[in-house]
Amino acid sequence: MSGEARGRFPRRVFGRGSEPDPRFTLANERTFLAWIRTSLALIAGGVALEALGLPMQPGLRLAASLVLVLAGILAPLQAWFGWARVEQAMRLGRALPGSVLTAPLAVVVSVVGVLLLLGYALR
Amino acid sequence: MTGGATPDPPSRERFDDGLQVERTALSWQRTGLAITAGSLVGARLLAPGTGWWGIGLGVAGALLGLFVLVRSGIRHRHVHRVLTTRLSTAPHAVPLDVATASASAPTQLPGAVLPAVVAAAVLIAGLVALGYVIAAATAAAASAG
């Protein structure tokens, strides 16, 4: 495989295996970016809840805010490590791993919805 | 799915760089715009309560977003160049003009430095947001109780 003398970062991913179909590499990169945008939305939601001071029971509003921001902190970890694991699997011809955070995130969003409903009802 | 195995016979068709590559570039643009817009809106929301800190973070975030937009344009050109000058040993692509595949042209897709920087920055933003939420809630509780 021809290429620059310098290895690509990270070596743990690009130093092994062979180059996959570039369309799959690009799709993996888009998935990474989707997780990043998800993280931004979660963080923004959590911050807005507190910053806007919506008329809700304060404890429940804080709980919803914290859950959103914590999810927003985990999402970039899923973005990076998910990207690395999938790229590695593609290069080594292995089965692709699933995203760890997908199902928990769905639960998180539902839980936040319930907290908001309760917080508004009990304001 | 195996990476790159079962190669198609060398095709005379140019690699389909109008779709996947462009979609990826657009995805980067959306991300850069989200970072920029989110930072500016966040600064607008937070400035009343946090003063210069909020404004400073907003400006930093907006600069990061602009940095992402600029770097992603460079990345797009790099990817496009690699995929349209690739030799026929790679699946799906032959060079239109071997003479253009000069020694200085990139032959590999870019690495993951930009993604790593973006992930790290967003992670830090999340931690700062966590601090803000806790501080704001504490202050609100103290003034109300």
UniProtKB/TrEMBL annotation, chain A:
The keyword Cytoplasm does not apply. InterPro entries: DUF202, IM_YidH-like. One of its GO terms (cellular component) is plasma membrane. The keyword Phosphoprotein does not apply. It comes from the Bacteria. Keywords: Cell membrane, Membrane, Transmembrane, Transmembrane helix. The chain crosses the membrane at residues 32-52, 59-81, 101-122. Residues 23-89 form the DUF202 domain. It is a multi-pass membrane protein. It is found in: Cell membrane. Its main location: membrane. PANTHER family: DUF202 DOMAIN-CONTAINING PROTEIN (PTHR34187:SF2), FGR18P (PTHR34187). This is DUF202 domain-containing protein.
Automatic annotation (TrEMBL), chain B:
The chain crosses the membrane at residues 51-70, 112-142. It comes from the Bacteria. It is a multi-pass membrane protein. It is found in: Endomembrane system. The keyword Transmembrane helix applies. InterPro entries: DUF202. GO terms for cellular component: endomembrane system. This is DUF202 domain-containing protein. It comes from Subtercola boreus.
